[in-house]
């Protein structure tokens, strides 16, 4: 595999979670896909190709393909990339990482990076994106930020997760990393920022899958992970959320262009 070199230590927590990631992580709603597509612009339409960097299981890759873009995903983890290949075809699922993108110079008419840029070596990833994007091509980075719900159970679950985030110095939740390396890079124009709110609903099994897909949970030894997820299930049930939960999200969308 494009070796586990240079990957953030917590990324190993995603190595075996493709199934729960696909089950529990939010889908990209049509209005958000339209916003991203608008930021990519006409320059990213075929025959130009669009990169989905850190594509994971392909949740956004599939939506952009359906919207008419010629998308290729780059993903370093075997399990995630196998799920990506099943969803979009093996020819669109490349083994690679942000610090060494397996594409040629100025080969792309656009790029997206959703829920992933904080995991990268930002400066090296910015250099690589500057290399593979053609002049004028857009780059869109996205984070889906959970806003919680009205249930008191969320505070109890968060109390279980916060020590894991703190202990591992989670680059997004604890360090607050976003797209600083892109904002400071001379090859990119000043970023345009926008937000979009949406909701989704999960049944109990998908709720547990969501928590199982967290990097800090996936990185735990098997017995600790099972115990934590059992406690999450007990909290959810005790607070009457057995029939499912509604999640509120804020999409943080930032767009720039290759000069």
Topology, pairings included?
Blueprint: H1 18-24, H2 30-40, E1 50-53, H3 59-66, E2 71-75, H4 78-88, E3 93-95, E4 108-114, H5 122-132, E5 133-146, H6 153-167, H7 180-183, E6 192-202, H8 204-212, H9 215-218, H10 222-238, E7 245-257
Parallel strand pairs: 1-2, 1-4, 2-3, 4-5
Antiparallel strand pairs: 5-7, 6-7
Helix pairs in contact: 1-8, 6-10, 8-10
Which key features would you list for this structure?
259 residues; alpha/beta; Rossmann fold; globular
Describe this structure in words.
The model has no long low-confidence stretch (mean pLDDT 94). This protein has a single domain, classed as Vaccinia Virus protein VP39 (Rossmann fold, 3-Layer(aba) Sandwich), CATH 3.40.50. It starts with 17 loop residues before the first helix and ends with a strand. Strand 4, helix 5 and strand 5 form a beta-alpha-beta unit. The chain is α/β, with parallel strands linked by helices.
Structure summary:
The chain is an alpha/beta fold. Helix content is 37%, strand content 22%.
């Amino acid at each position: 595999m494009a070796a586990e070199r240079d990957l953030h230590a917590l990324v190993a927590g995603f190595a075996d979670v493709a199934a729960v990631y696909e089950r529990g992580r939010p889908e990209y709603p049509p209005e958000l896909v339209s916003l991203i597509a608008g930021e990519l612009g006409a320059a990213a339409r075929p025959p130009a190709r669009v990169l989905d960097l850190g594509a994971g299981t392909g949740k956004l890759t599939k939506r952009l393909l359906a919207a008419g873009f010629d998308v290729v995903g780059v993903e370093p983890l075997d399990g995630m990339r196998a799920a990506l290949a099943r969803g979009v075809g093996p020819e669109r699922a490349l083994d690679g990482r942000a610090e060494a993108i397996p594409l040629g110079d100025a080969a792309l008419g656009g790029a997206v990076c959703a829920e992933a840029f904080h995991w990268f070596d930002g400066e090296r990833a910015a250099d690589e994106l500057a290399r593979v994007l053609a002049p004028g091509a857009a780059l869109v980075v996205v984070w889906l930020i959970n806003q919680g719900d009205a249930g008191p159970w969320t505070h109890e679950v968060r109390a279980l997760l916060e020590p894991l985030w703190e202990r591992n110095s989670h680059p997004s939740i604890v360090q607050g990393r976003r797209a600083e390396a892109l904002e400071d890079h001379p090859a990119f124009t000043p970023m345009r920022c926008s937000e979009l709110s949406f909701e989704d609903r999960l049944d109990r099994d998908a709720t547990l899958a969501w928590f199982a897909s967290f990097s800090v949970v996936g990185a735990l030894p098997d017995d600790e992970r099972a115990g934590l997820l059992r406690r999450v299930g007990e909290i959810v049930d005790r607070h009457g959320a057995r029939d499912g939960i509604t999640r509120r999200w804020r999409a943080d969308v930032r767009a720039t262009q290759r000069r």
